[in-house]
Design goal:
This protein is an alpha+beta fold. The protein has three domains: 156 residues, Jelly Rolls (Sandwich); 44 residues; 54 residues, Arc Repressor Mutant, subunit A (Orthogonal Bundle), CATH 1.10.10.60. The protein has a five-stranded antiparallel beta sheet. Strands 5-4-7 form a three-stranded antiparallel beta sheet, with no helix packed on it. β4 and β5 form a beta hairpin. The N and C termini lie far apart (74 Å). This is HTH-type transcriptional activator RhaR. It holds the Pfam family HTH_18. InterPro entries: AraC_XylS_family_regulators (IPR050204), Homeodomain-like_sf (IPR009057), HTH_AraC (IPR018060), HTH_AraC-typ_CS (IPR018062).
Length: 284
Amino acid sequence: MSHPAALPTIRSITASSATIVRMRSDVALPPGPALPNEDAASIIVQLRPFESLALWRGGRSFFNGGYDRGGLAITDLCDTWRCHHGSAFDNLRMRVERRVLQDFARELGVRGPVSLSNPAGSVDPVIFNLAQALLPSLDGPEQRQRLFLDQMVGAFLIHILQAYGSAAASGRHRPRLTPRQEALAKEILSAHLPGNISVDEVAAQCNLSRSHFIRAFCNSTGKTPYQWLTERRIEVVKNCLAAGTVPISMIAAECGFVDQSHLTRVFKRVTGVTPADWRKRNDL
């Protein structure tokens, strides 16, 4: 009796600039069909050691071996790729259209068309850590804050372009927001405490591109938009805690946290104490 072929477990989300997929399997998989051609790149980082992978590009062997945890591969999907997962694996992959990469590269001061080299298994701890930070967003809708996703994808792509891009940057210009743009961005972010707004939307209100806005915001405030919003939410929580006896669970909901435990984790990370302890210490 024949048995059905093993299938990987796949979870995916779509951000403003890329599609993010976690793919894993506890067993080897049979050789797969050729991947569809498209004007995009696929960036894959291994979340655990991967013992056996065979890759073919254009019908010719391209790679045959293993990857350490954090091992990186970048493939141009204009080429024809086939792969054979010869052992268990767990990876996160980001698919990004070439026009998006070009837009990010332009904002970094890159001259001309950009292409990416394939590090073929080199370990990249920056990309690995960014991938780890993205994993909770794949677990459920309640974890998917648009601002956070956009910011993480931006950091991911900027690092890839700077580390593996082929074109040269035109200089080290450090853009900053004007005082009006900074005040407007903070006002918009404060009006969306749950993070239910994208970086694209805030950048558009400031008449800036997405990647330019992120860099200019960081240079002006010393924080990413998501870090600034998190600290702003904590300040609002403190005001609510000091105002009376409103249950912490209700404060969590009003300030855009998933639940009380989510608020407690973030609050303690920022302040060093739990909301309950902070309330006791500041009880007037």
